[in-house]
Amino acid sequence: xxxxxxxxxxxxxxxxxxxxxxxxxxxxxxxxxxxxxxxxxxxxxxxxxxxxxxxxxxxxxxxxxxxxxxxxxxxxxxxxxxxxxxxxxxxxxxxxxxxxxxxxxxxxxxxxxxxxxxxxxxxxxxxxxxxxxxxxxxxxxxxxxxxxxxxxxxxxxxxxxxxxxxxxxxxxxxxxxxxxxxxxxxxxxxxxxxxxxxxxxxxxxxxxxxxxxxxxxxxxxxxxxxxxxxxxxxxxxxxxxxxxxxxxxxxxxxxxxxxxxxxxxxxxxxxxxxxxxxxxxxxxxxxxxxxxxxxxxxxxxxxxxxx
Length: 307
What we know:
Blueprint: E1 3-10, H1 15-24, E2 32-38, H2 40-47, H3 52-55, E3 59-64, H4 71-81, E4 86-90, E5 95-96, H5 101-106, E6 113-121, H6 128-137, E7 143-145, H7 150-153, E8 164-168, H8 169-175, H9 186-196, E9 200-210, H10 217-233, H11 235-238, H12 244-260, H13 267-285, H14 292-298, H15 302-306
Parallel strand pairs: 1-2, 1-4, 2-3, 6-9
Antiparallel strand pairs: 4-8, 5-9, 6-8, 7-9
């Protein structure tokens, strides 16, 4: 069974080499590492004088312009370059915790399980608020999700993250693949199709990557604006599922965690951050009613709107 890894890349730093080294050291060998690089000049600046090709002989680099990049379309192109039975989507800032990442991530990909995603852990420099978010969204217990969980999990049934997720190629082809043009959420849109087709998604808590961001409140607003746009643009996926209840659960979880750690003084700041997230999400869901200049000012992906 061949496993390919697909990584969209933009303005990479030397941490990309560490990620590739970690992938080369996996207990399950990687067939091909497909780098979908945005803007050739940035990649050329990084690899100049490094003997990149001899060092990573199974890495293939495909260049595209910033205007061409699309969350769904770029990954879809990456899959077309792949010939793996399983392909793994990662982001360039997802660092494998150990050499068992691919082994643990793919071990349940059979039968009606068509996709699996990894646990994301905060890094050393992560803020406490970011640690709370990672703890809430990526708990320490693995699970399988199917359509039978819709009543209890709601929108979380469709949750899957291309920060690090594995897909069976046969199921992917049968379902038609990633949506070719989307501002965000290509992973959840695909996962919803998989669930509604009778498939299952595995969350593998023992497959772990370090991945976290210390976003400012405005960065959170812009990110959640794009999230809201994706919900509004795909009512076939999100119209019947409410996400607001997940926000309430997160706030309650944060209160309990901070109370236990005797750090409740941080709770107001967490609530302010949540307000920015929710405001961005609501604005994104109603983007069609906003002036275009507002949309371009609120989004974190201007190229999507230009296209």
